[in-house]
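Weekly puzzle thread! Below is a chain. First person to post its structure in token form gets bragging rights.
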Amino acid sequence: MLRTYVITVSSEKGGVGKTTLATNLAIYLKALNEEMPVTLFSLDNHFSVDRMFRLQRRAPEGDVFDLFRGKNAEALVEMGQYGVQFIPSSHHLSAARDRIAEMDILARALATSRLAGIVIIDTRPDLDVFTGNALYAADRVIVPVKDAASLENCRHIYQFFDRHRLSRRPLRVLPCLVDSRIRYQGPFNDSYKLLKASALKRGYRCLEGFIAKSPKVESLNTNPEGKIHPILSHAKGTEVHLQMTNIARQIYLGAMDEPERRLEQVKQGMSDQQRAREEDFQNRRSALVRHCLLCGRPLISAEGIANAGYFAETADGRLRGYIEEQCFTDTVFRHFYRTRRELASGDPLREIFREAAQRSFFAFRRAPNTRQFFQQQLSFYRFDEEGLEVSHKKIDLPAWDILRAEEPFLFQVVGALSAADGLLGDDFLLVARVSSDFPEEILYTEAYDGFRRVSARIAGQLREND
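Winning reply:
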């Protein structure tokens, strides 16, 4: 079974025969090897693929947009005419274009699928995020050109590969819709020779041959049934049939001879990334203080993390650990909200604070403009989910020995933020609510990176306050 080989047909210029090439290439490749799976889908919204290959009239199980939403590719595939599999086209791509930024979503989806053989992707005449995803996943990129303008647009695809540090090796230019009747004076006396010479001059590699302009082939898209007919069955006596045969054979032999596969590289990269993320998680976990940062009671054992309500870390990362929920709430209300009575577990104030904490970050830091020993004050900030300040309270700090003897919870906070001279420095302790069922979640890459982004944003605001 041929390991998955991805072909992307792409051009920023419309009307160059891109979809005709992609759809017919699928049929010719299947004809070359009937045992080889060939799968086709389009990221354009003209539904030519569906009109050409659909056998059944039932509603599809999904469409190409579902690939970008994490659905398994093999669950979306339909068996079509001529033995070619296809994934239905989608109406939703244009509307979703601005909500997608990553260029590797499609490659990851295909790399983790069970699709085999050759996968052909027809793209839209626009170098948007969907076309970018198709280029990023490709073992071979065929760029159809029919004139100087479309050849000039090739540079954007080459720039895409350079920008994303991809090898240019997959890229091939193919002159299409060439009018063989046109003749020029000089060594490049027809359109094909002129386009190929211009491509080579720019440093572009070309497939051997070209696809001619053919009224017969153009008529295959227009008929009373609204069907799109393939060249192989309805234009076999044309010059284009021989040209498509030649192109398909080149592509097939190239796929057979290519030792590496783009999706295998992507899959290996995903595995390496997962391994690195796991190492980062374990490193962050091993650096945790094993007791509550305020009361000192053990929170972390071989069995896991228990009774943790909040995660806390200094901005410089030197101190990292968890805080019991009751310790944190009692410290905040006792010292910053001046609530002297004990807050029971069901107390309305505790519940209101607990609810607000789900959408907040908290920070302890030296109060602004209090750098001298006799001025020592501690600030308590509340920030929203984006790291924007919501409220700010500050308290005067007693002498060090009094603080240690009478306010042990507060003493732990001040100790974490004090420099070698005993004065509060510029660092701050950022605190975030965690799930009591899964407190380790914040140590995983996505959540922890979000925590650090908010920390950096808060650091900038605090510097402006001084």
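Puzzle host: Confirmed. Bonus trivia for everyone else. The first strand starts at residue 5 and ends at 9.
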